[in-house]
């Protein structure tokens, strides 16, 4: 598996702090799962930017994915294939995960987009 540890950018940490209070979802890993899924549902690949790992928020892949960590990894691999990323290049897969995670957090942190858990459900229903 390409991903063992996940460290967020300080901007993403700040966004998650606000999202925790608005959504009333107390665990960052759950919010990160939502963010990842929102991003991979987008038609376009994330912009390849450098994302610093400059916060003190860190979690293992198993904490991120919980009991469904293998499913999240399969989704990531499928998305990498769709975007033309070599799934045998662990660094490239890890980078794509970070790009998707941070893009999704950014989408969720858009002002007034997430005001409650119901807004998260609404986003999931929009993508159907």
Structure, described:
The chain is mainly alpha-helical. The protein has a single domain (5-126), classed as DNA sulphur modification protein DndE (Arc Repressor Mutant), CATH 1.10.1220. It has 6 helices and 2 strands. It has helices at 10-23, 28-40, 61-65, 69-82, 90-108, 117-126; strands spanning 5-7, 58-60. The chain has a two-stranded antiparallel ribbon. α2 packs across α5 (90-108). The radius of gyration is 14 Å and the shape is globular.
Per CATH, what is the topology? Arc Repressor Mutant
Portion in beta strands: under 5%
Which stretches of 5+ consecutive residues score pLDDT under 50? none
**Major sheet details:** 2 strands, antiparallel
Structural class: mainly alpha
Average pLDDT, rounded to a whole number, is: 92
Which value, in Å, is the CA radius of gyration?
14 Å
Class in CATH?
A: Mainly Alpha
Number of helices: 6
Note the gap between the termini: 29 Å
| Global outline | globular
Q: Taking strands numbered 1, 2, ... along the chain, how are they ordered across the largest sheet?
A: 1-2
Q: Could you say what the CATH architecture is? A: Orthogonal Bundle
Helix content range: 55-70%
As for the number of domains, it is 1
Number of strands: 2
Order of secondary-structure elements: EHHEHHHH
